[in-house]
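Field guide to reading this record: the first block holds the primary sequence, the second block holds the structure written as discrete tokens, and the final block holds curator observations. Each block starts with its own label. This record concerns DUF4181 domain-containing protein, catalogued under organism Gracilibacillus orientalis.

BLOCK 1 — SEQUENCE
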Amino acid sequence: MGISTPFLALVVSIAYIIVSKLIVGKNKKKISETAGENIQIWGLLIIGIIGICSVFFFLDIFNNNVMKWFWLFFLILTLGFQSFLEWKFLKDSKEYVVSLIVLMLGLIYILIFIF
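BLOCK 2 — STRUCTURE
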């Protein structure tokens, strides 16, 4: 697993910026400007707490196979949740497409470099 895992966050962040500029352009909208702001905050907070607790209390962090699956499911859960909220609350925007493309790029990164 080594050094490729820390680069996952970097790859996902850079991919999100680039894909967002290509697909949405300067007409970006945010969920925080809609009624879904509290749902997004609480949902991502709960996902983050569950992720942190599972890493520290339930998972064997020294087992590479377990951590590979953890990062795979964590990425799917967070970006899937984000894209669902964007689809639900930003109907006239294509922001959810950006999240889905970044999710696929993240999954490809995990499958190539971590698995």
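BLOCK 3 — OBSERVATIONS
The radius of gyration is 15 Å.
The longest helix spans residues 64-89.
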